[in-house]
Amino acid sequence: MQEDAYWIREKVKEHSKWFEDSLPMIASENVMSPLAKEMMISDFHDRYAEGLPGKRYYRGNIYVDQVELKCMELARKIFNCKFVDPRPTSGTVANMAALFALCEPGDTITTTSLDHGAHISTAKFGAVGQRGVKTVNYPFNTKDMIIDVDGARKVLLETRPKVAQFGLSVFLFPAPLKELQDTFDEIGCTVWYDAAHVLGLIAGGQFQDPLHEGAHFITASTHKTFPGPNHGIVLGENISEEMEKKMNSAVFPGVTSSHHLHAMAALAVTLAEWEIYGKQYAAQVCKNAKALGQALNELGMDVLCAHKGFTESHTLAVNVGAYGGGQQVSIDLEAANMITNKNMLPGDTSAVKPSGIRLGVQELTRVGMRESEMKEVARLIHKVAVKKQKPEHVKAEVIALKKNFTTVKYCIGDGFEAYKFHELI
After folding, report:
1. Strands 190-194 vs 163-166: parallel, antiparallel or unpaired
2. pLDDT band at residue 143 using 50, 70 and 90 as cut-offs
3. Each residue of 191-221: pLDDT tens digit?
4. Confidence (pLDDT) at 423
5. Which fold has domain 36-273?
6. What is the rounded CA–CA span in Å between residue 350 and residue 344?
7. Considering Cα of 24, then 30, then 33, then 38, what sign does the dihedral take?
8. By the 8 A CB rule, do 329 and 323 touch?
9. CATH topology (fold) of 277-424
10. Which of 22, 37, 181, 314 has a Cα-to-Cα distance from 390 of 20 to 30 A?
């Protein structure tokens, strides 16, 4: 019915207004630039392009091929790598492609466990389990929130995995790739790095350089610290031509058909913008994360790894077990227009009722917030989580703070209203 269609549109507009008035701190989200969003409603949205540029199964891809080749060229330049496949439709789809290309059922892969910050795709009930791959977890230094290097070396030598996988959803500090390089060489495993959360920081030179520290492949989503479309990518370096072909085939026809051409074009635009703005943005993200961690810590909240400066990424992990746990605190914060998520911390046994919340500053940075605003954000979080002030009272303060931070920065067309693109359609 016509009424249903307009009702749906109104709900989307209400959502946009809500986020315009909110402090979005989900570590896996961001907002795109106006040029990138324009790609999402272009005719690319309605088309198919199975295969590789110049080797498509359908006609009508003259301009699609040109855009995709430019996308690959830009990615090679920004990440200083040999291999690029921009066709995965999400980070998890990119992970699935890696599993098909690198592993057979019954093979062993080493990973981090969920309660130490891993992504669900490397769990037995996720993509790894669906591929029938055996997992062995690295020992983890919970105080420093990093893989234990000596323990990991021992596990690698004992299990001799087909693939050594790295990458986290609570990605506070770089993975010890350089420290384990000799071990990788000794056992001859492929090293795979899931950079979904930190791709923009890597591209901006602010985290680590996995492809030149021992990783053969990076898989990633492209909408977190890298503020592109909800899409995926695979990058590679120091790999054989045979392995390139395996990865291409794993992407298509392995785990994708048409690869969402509008999102690929939006990714290409974001890569082009990253050449101009990436280093500046990534640096400010890291400054803001440390500033927010420091401010929360000074208010008495238990931010993990205070002794290490809290984080070297966009993410903070905060233990709120003393204040009702991650489930309740995230609900209360949402009622005050602060959007976060509950998250398992080391020692937690339940993903439903964990002790922690996870905070990301990449979207607040994208709309222009800096260190001084992080102090105010911390004060508002503390009011709700610790002082237990009524969320509806704090909500007014959140809206007042956000009022001056609703336009996208670090992009071509700086000044675009981040949460009002629907009004341009």
Report:
1. parallel
2. very high
3. 999 999 999 999 999 999 999 999 999 999 9
4. 54
5. Aspartate Aminotransferase; domain 2 (3.40.640)
6. 7
7. negative
8. yes
9. Aspartate Aminotransferase, domain 1 (3.90.1150)
10. 314
The sign one gets for the Cα dihedral 298, 304, 309, 313 is negative
- The burial of 21, by beta-carbon neighbours within 10 Å (0-12 exposed, 13-18 middle, 19 or more buried), is given as middle
**pLDDT single digits (tens) 5-30:** 999 999 999 999 999 999 999 999 99
Q: Where exactly are the structural domains of the chain?
A: 36-273, 277-424
Task: For residue 382, give the H/E element and its range.
Answer: helix 371-385
Name the β-bridge partners of 235: 84, 218
- Selection from 67, 66, 58, 129 nearest residue 92 by Cα: 129
Task: List Cα–Cα distances, 247 to 154, 185, 366, 417, in angstroms.
Answer: 29, 21, 33, 38
pTM of the model: 0.95
Question: What percent of the chain has a predicted confidence (pLDDT) above 70?
Answer: 98
> Which residues have C-beta within 8 Å of that of residue 200, sequence separation ≥ 6?
224, 225, 226, 227, 274, 278, 281, 282, 285, 362
Helix (H) or strand (E) run with residue 228 in it: strand 227-236
Q: In what order do the strands lie in the sheet with 217-223?
A: 83-85, 227-236, 217-223, 190-194, 163-166, 108-111, 134-137
pLDDT confidence of residue 126 = 73
Q: Identify the pLDDT of residue 60.
A: 97
Tokens representing residue 223 in the block: 């909408």
**How far is it, in rounded angstroms, from Cα 110 to Cα 105?**
14
228-238 as b/e: b if 16+ CB within 10 A: bbbbbbbbbbe
DSSP state of 82: S
132: helix, coil or strand? coil
Q: What does the alpha-carbon distance between residue 40 and residue 106 come to, in Å, rounded to a whole number?
A: 40
**Mean pLDDT, the chain, whole residue set:** 95
Q: What is the pLDDT of residue 425?
A: 45
